[in-house]
Amino acid sequence: MTVENGKRWNHNIHYHPRILGAVPDGARHALDVGCGEGMLTRELRQAVPHVTGIDLDALSIDQAREYPDEVEYVLGDFLTHPFEPASFDLVASVATLHHMDAAAGLARMRDLLRPGGVLAIVGLARSAMPNDLPHDLAGVVVGTVHRAVKGHWEHPSPTVWPPPVTYPQMRGLAAEILPGSEYRRHLLFRYSITWRKPQD
């Protein structure tokens, strides 16, 4: 974790290492979907020569561009921006998929990956009660401890709550749209999806 992130903590930053650990060897081009003010984007730039961040929020993009980090920041809609198909070795997304139609977002991310490229997502979903109650209670306890020790950084980007898709629904979408993907439910109210696009 970078020094910058070492001074900040929240549930999303906590899982940045999952994204960074998924960067494939030899990756040249990476896309950060819903980059916000660019914290993860800047971390990706330390591992990948060419990184693009895209976000719909103008204020967040303006903040991201204040850093001299050689990252291309795009103000626009990820679902419609004219990226070239199969043009990225890594597509990453943290806490963004619930801001759009999840199925459309997953399909678009899949299509932007080169064969052999990796999709790495950390997202939010809606708990389904009562099944998720024990998991959520454990998450509250652990999250409270983290906040007490590390504090809590509130990101400036817009929020959507509650997420429109439940955890079981997201697992199903991942299995359908990204066959062979790895889906995991995490303690701090997040899930992750990791998928490598098959070679042609």
Automatic annotation (TrEMBL):
Gene3D superfamilies: Vaccinia Virus protein VP39 (3.40.50.150)
InterPro entries referenced in this protein's UniProt entry, alphabetically: Diverse_substrate_MTase, Methyltransf_11, SAM-dependent_MTases_sf
Segments forming domain Methyltransferase type: 31-121
GO molecular function, one term: 2-polyprenyl-6-hydroxyphenol methylase activity
Pfam families attached to this UniProt entry: Methyltransf_11
EC number in record: 2.1.1.222, 2.1.1.64
Transmembrane portions of the chain: none
Alphabetical UniProt keywords: Methyltransferase, Transferase
Gene Ontology biological process terms, A to Z: methylation
CDD domains, per the entry: AdoMet_MTases (cd02440)
SUPFAM superfamilies listed in its UniProt record: S-adenosyl-L-methionine-dependent methyltransferases (SSF53335)
Classification via PANTHER family: METHYLTRANSF_11 DOMAIN-CONTAINING PROTEIN, METHYLTRANSFERASE TYPE 11 DOMAIN-CONTAINING PROTEIN
Similarity comment: family membership: Belongs to the methyltransferase superfamily.
Protein name: Class I SAM-dependent methyltransferase
Organism: Nonomuraea mangrovi
Lineage: Bacteria, Bacillati, Actinomycetota, Actinomycetes, Streptosporangiales
